[in-house]
Amino acid sequence: MCYFAERYNNIRFPIDSENSRGLRNAQLGAVHAIAAFSTLRKKSAGIVVMPTGSGKTAVLMMTPYMLLSRKVLIVTPSKMVRGQIFDDFSNLGTLKKARVFMEDERPPAIFELKKLYSEDFREKIESVDVVVASPPCALSLSENGMREEFDLVLIDEAHHVPAPTWQQILINMKTAKHFLFTATPFRMDRKEIKGDIIYTYPLSMAFRDGIFGEIQYVSIEEALEKDKLIAKEAERIFLNDRQQGYDHYLMVRTDTKEKARQLFDLYQKETTLRLKRIDSSMSFRTAKTYIAALKAKQIDGIICVDMLGEGFDFPNLKIAAIHSPHKSLASTLQFIGRFARTNAENIGVAKFIAMNDSELVIENYKLYTADAVWQDIIIDMSERTIHKEEEVKKNLEGYVRGDGTPLTENVISLHSLRPNCHAKVYHISGFDINGVFPEFCCVGDDIYRSANDNTVVGIGVAKSKPRWSDTEQVLDVQNLLFIVHYQEETSLLFVYSQMKSEADYRAIAEAFTVGYNKIPRNEIHRVLGEMQEYEMFNTGMQSRFAETGESYRIYAGSNVASSIDPISGKMYAAGHVFCKAIENGEPVTIGYSSGSKIWSSTYLLIPEYIKWCNSRGLKIANEAIEVKTNTNYDFMPIPKRLTAFPEKVFFCFFSDKTYTSPPILMRSIDEPSSIILTDATLIIDSVAQDSIQVIVSLQGLTDTITCNIDGTVSCDRPTILLKDGRNRVYLFEYLNDYPLVFKTTDDSVIEGNEICTGAPDAIIFLQESIKNIDWPTYQTNIRREFGANNRGKKPIHTVLQELLLSNDEFNYLLYDHGSGEIADFISVKESEHTIEVILYHVKAMKGKNFNGDLSDIYEVTQQAIKSTIWLKTRGTLLEKVKSRRKSRHCVLKKGQFKDLEKTLKQNKLFTAKIVIVQPAISKSLAIPTKFQEVLAATSFYIRNSGRITELEIWGSD
């Protein structure tokens, strides 16, 4: 029988009390948790979390007895701690003092491996029960055949385990049981400490039990000669403590060996303190000599560069002079724990001396400031961070692979995934957790589902050949992350995807839902609610009028909201925003866009990301939230959810993205044409509360599409097939991604499932804008738009052309009548400093009476509004003219094209005017209210579009 099994019956579990020594609550809980965990025969490591000073070493030493171990390897972070554990285990001093063993108990045979393993050590190691080693030596031992001798590996200060050396030790010794001990189960680099947290003793309980003592922060006001002031204050406190009978000692903490040398000289010159300097440049023997002098109380303290942190036990160290703070929470807690020990006589409150210069912020706390309540802050930071780590591990245990099997060590660790906070948000009517990611995600079997969180994680590997290679060999490999999370409370679906086209998001949503809708901006806008101190980094404003000039304005920089004024609020609607603010006392970043997306600059673990989604989702769904940023961003109107189509819809046009990059018409499934979608004619056929029907005509093909109130588009018999990039889609499918924009006569804009109301009171029809043309004088047939003369009467186009050619004010005249036209006639006038373009849109009278038939003005006003897109810039107009001329349109009636081209390339002020030519409109007769609404809305829209200075109507007397 092995040593530990033999001695098991000698173990006792006395409880520590005022009258007798024994095991503390923390030690009792940890020991029994280890025993319980070992009965489950889990392959994973057990992690024990105990505050510094709570007796972790005693638990580590009892573990082999509890598990009846054969041979134990103890890995410690430093030579100094290795020596301490060797000495303690060699005589069972700590366990005998706690009355776990009687004084005559025989200790185990123990070997301190001080050098890399060689065969010379084999016989010695075979003869002992315990080997204590630092990581390099332990690694060398684990890399040879002797690793099979060990059935238990104990890791002290286990937050180092994610480091490669420590990881390899555990991998090499995978047949042994692993138990990891730490006070801080988290790291600055956020790497996972793999294993199950089987026991956590909170710091608050350690404080109540008297294990973690009182701590105080001594603030020095910010000033020059920082190091000198800290040194003087350290000396003052040290001498005062000694005068009060406290047996206290000092540690001077800095971050570099060079700084330590400087501080040694400074303390010698400015104080009477007897100090020794310890850093990694010294031999272990020298360092050990100085430590012995400290414990023998022959010196007053030490100047240290991270040499006496983890595992160092000298409870009389009670004063810390902090010249250079630690940079991580784990290191700070470890450091503070060394001074908060209570297991010594004649000791009082631990004191930390640092300058109040706000040098360090940890977990959003400015620790080194005068008003920092250290006792509360340190306990809260420790417990909150440990609890978060426990919660993450517990949460990730709920994930299973796509085939239903639990996660194993040979698959990717979900703990290693840290997505940036970004999500496309949908409102859905049903969630299918067993959905399968679309094929383009290349996920395969790497799917992980959690029914507890209603979350599915997919990891894709997309392979392709590089663009610079002509071979079929796959060289480019891209790893892709997808997360689908359903918040049942709000019926919201959050989709995280590294493939971010609308079609990709839609396909992923379709795979996991029954039905879905994007979230309108007024609801997405609520993610900005319940915060304070907003500062906008980036804002976007979407023009509520034509695409002429700026269709989307972006401000970027610091405090960009100040650039928004009330006038901008009337011209634009909120597009996107990204800002920082304070939420629940913490700084956060948050942004949203019109595409139903939300994002932050933060990277989080999967469970934390889900919490982030849920917290944003509760805001989005909360109708009671009213966002008030107290910045100029509040001037921006926010589009709202469309609940019913208004009766006053009078016009529709394609989205800005369609005009920027229009898809082309396919003649057949394989044969593309040169016809672009923006050449199509759009006619509103009917308007109901829940839908609008639009007739789309393009190159002899006609689709009647239905735009539904939820933002979706459908078509019973689609015929218009488009090629958009690589994709071939029917028109209605394309419009689901790039919805039509509808305009009302009272200045509302509808896009998808959103409506943005404007300023209806500003829309006024002025009858003076109608110019009377004496059509009979020119022998005009006002009921015929174009074609041949009939009975001596000329069609309107012929008369208009004669009138325009008789006008010497402009240099060029183009005739562009036909499908996809810019306008029927286009005149261009060049002067010394300006270029003026006038577009003439013509329609014949079809009604029986003047001002009697609304259809006389509907089509021509829509053409006029649509044409504003071609007046965005001189270059836009020129490119469109060139495109039309290729299709044998845009015939020059005056001037030469090469000269026109040169004119439109001149860097001169570019202005435009639009003329509606419709003889059915009579200036002298009463104009019906509906006529006035349409004409006033058209005029208001065009005049506010930016480039166009005037809308003129050529009618009749």
UniProtKB/TrEMBL annotation:
GO cellular component entries: cytosol
GO molecular function: ATP binding; DNA binding; hydrolase activity
Pfam families: Helicase_C (PF00271), ResIII (PF04851)
Lineage top rank: taxon: Bacteria
SMART domains according to UniProt: DEXDc, HELICc
Residues in Helicase C-terminal domain copies: 225-385
All residue ranges annotated as the Helicase ATP-binding domain in the record: 37-203
Listed name of the protein: UvrABC system protein B
Species lineage: Bacteria, Bacillati, Bacillota, Clostridia, Eubacteriales
